[in-house]
Here is the input.
Amino acid sequence: MFVRDHIPYQYLNADYAMAVENIKSNWYAHGDSPMIIEQARQAIDEYIRFKTNIPTVGASGAVYGVLMAFGILFPNTLIYLYFFIPLKAKYLVLIIGGIELYSAWQSNPTDNVAHFAHLGGMLFGYLLLRYWQKNNRSQLF
Here is the structure.
């Protein structure tokens, strides 16, 4: 019952409680044999890897695009960081873009943030705003 070939059907598609109960029943039936311990560890590792490797979709790239467009359209608007530190919008966009670029090149394996998606959103916001300005400058906003 605790064969490695059956792990995807038995543990990955089952909910977590059922997988834990199967592991516990095999553990109680066979004792503390090293083979059972290793198979239980492998089954739990595969289950966790399966459940945590699910891609998600977010709108943060679009938010960064709007941020870039705001920095281009209103570059000298003061934005107050923490309600006390005044910073012009153009500098805030440069700082945030620089932080994202640095974070993207770090490529930390535990960081689950799509930094290149943020940078792509900023690039798309810049290109779209330039396209709109070139075609119809009088009615941009």
